[in-house]
Amino acid sequence: MTHKAGFVNIIGNPNVGKSTLMNALVGERLSIITSKAQTTRHRILGIVNSDDFQIVFSDTPGIIKPAYGLQESMMDFVKTAFEDADILIYMVEIGEKELKDEAFFNRISNSKVPVLLVINKIDKSNQQQLEEQVELWQSKVPKAEIFPVSALEHFNTQALFNRIIELLPECPPYYPKDSLTDKSERFFVNEMIREKILLNYEKEIPYSVEVETEEFLEDEMIIRIRAVIMVERDSQKGILIGHKGSALKKVGTAAREEMEKFFQKKVHLELFVKVNKDWRSSEYQLKRFGYNQKK
After folding, report:
1. What are 273-285's pLDDT values in tens digits?
2. First-to-last CA distance in the chain?
3. C-alpha closest to that of 74 among 207, 254, 204
4. 185-200 and 246-263 helices cross at what angle (nearest 10)?
5. Which of 52, 164, 178, 253 is 20 to 30 A removed from 233 (C-alpha atoms)?
6. 53-59 and 44-49 as β-strands: parallel, antiparallel, unpaired?
7. How far apart, in whole angstroms, are the C-alpha atoms of residue 285 and residue 194?
8. Shortest CA distance to 70 belongs to which of 214, 221, 286, 245?
9. Residue 94 vs residues 55, 97, 130: alpha-carbon distances, Å
10. Paired strand residues for 225
11. What is the pTM of this model?
12. Closest listed residue to residue 2, CA positions, set 168, 158, 159, 160
């Protein structure tokens, strides 16, 4: 029996639904999802295994013009997604007409690997608008196959999945067959806490935050976790903690409940807040948090 395997990398503008699509295709909630741009900061792999195939899906940060070190590192993750792709998923949403970076768009248009252009959020459109969008993108990326989907409603995602399997090259698996992702448990703890911060705070606070799990101790009954939330300013620390710790407690409760669903086990979570000045522009700090890996 022949075996197929390959990297299927999802790219596109911020907030078009890349993380929602990957979670739908993998069947697990690996990428955090909020309505805020720049929710995804890393390149996250989700692995789907069967007897005769292995698909390595890759969720990437939304394409932006970087303004500081963290964003430059996020765009480096997108660049690597072009380099090892066997199939590219270029994702847009209804009403969208261009990619925010012309150089990236040219790489998609001239891609040597198959491009599946996914038009997402079609549940928010009508037939005429959808037909106009399909025509527009066919003219812009004539070599791409177009798939209108609603990732949130799982509409047409199975057809997309089936086409991916057809396009996979013959290849042995890249990862052990019981693998779901390349990320550690601590990574997902950090991401779940960061998601709750994105959902509960406004303006600059969510973008100034990084989370580091200092302790992850698991036994048969419970997982004990101690995590530190880093901010750039003393004023941000005060806002994050809130009056008598109320805001931080709300984040901690929501994150703990999410972790208990994810790990299928009781979780004891301790959260602390520290000031780490200008970490988003510090090469040393970015490396420490898993960014700037190419430098």
Report:
1. 999 888 888 887 8
2. 42
3. 207
4. 140
5. 253
6. antiparallel
7. 17
8. 286
9. 27, 9, 7
10. 216, 269
11. 0.68
12. 168
